[in-house]
Amino acid sequence: MVRRPGNLPCRRSTLREGTALANHLTPTELADATGMKRREVISRCMQMGVPIFQGRIDKTLFIASLRETEDFEGDNLASAEVAEAS
To answer: Whole-prediction pTM value?
Structure first.
């Protein structure tokens, strides 16, 4: 643990460069990961209340929100979960 000014603790990442997975994706990247179209991803974010911050969407929050909706096709969700795990 490293101490910053003001005695606030800060943890350094122990992951080597290139091993961390991106969790915040652009609408295009998220569309590719879920098998949806870009506009559909943006539309779903607006419907489900998933924030788009600086052009990026939290993939975990997006997929969790999709699981709660009944009209999302299971095939797309399964492929998104595989992409998330790899």
So the answer is: 0.60
